[in-house]
Predict the structure of Anaerobic ribonucleoside-triphosphate reductase activating protein.
Amino acid sequence: MNIHGFITLTLLDYPEHLAASIFLGGCNLRCPFCQNGNLVLSPENEPSISEEEVLAFLKKRSGILEGVCISGGEPTLYRELPDFISKIKALGYLVKLDTNGTNPEMLRFLYENHLLDYIAMDIKTQPEQYAKVSGLQPDAAGTQKLLQNINLSKEYIMSCGIDYEFRTTVVAELHRDEDFKELGKWLSGCRRYYLQPYRESEHILASMRNPDVCFHAPDTESLHRYIEILKKTIPNVELRGKDIK
């Protein structure tokens, strides 16, 4: 496991639980607004933390911390992920997985082997715009397979019984009303859906490639309008983010 980040205490990453968060390197998408561009483009240049060090800390905090959030990058790219989670579960922790949904087979395996308690799946945008917003070439080999896998993951998560959320980072330059109308159809009936306004950071993927690229969060009026569009088919839609009213 290529672990490149370890937050030893978070009140935010795992809903309603005191948790630690683990960040793995590497991703098969290239979302230009990604805040962890360093983990996507060049994880080999980031400081690493050994699996043994992480597990030793979790063992020591067992009974104090309740859960572990595994994020990235994209964790499901690692074939050894089930074994790693098994070790965490053996210490008595709940496990939340953050994923882009491109590996439905891994999600199914993890859930059916009782290795997951919560899934947070990032929804980049509506299906017709997905390749563009996730930084993929629509006609490139493998792109359509990835998009099909994302839909399979969405369907599986909604039907398998696990606790879950879908979430979208909303970028003023990339999202419009029509996108949320289509998202409302695609995600109709989902358990909970969060909109997260874009936040600037030093590792935005597009800015690492081109310093002149700049994104912005939508204004509050637009965010609330998107919420009202979505609530026609998804009752539980909320804004998640600092200073959002």
Residues 143-160 form the longest helix (18 residues). The chain has a mean pLDDT of 94. The longest strand covers residues 3-10. The beta strands are 3-10, 19-24, 67-71, 94-99, 118-122, 163-170, 193-197, 237-239.
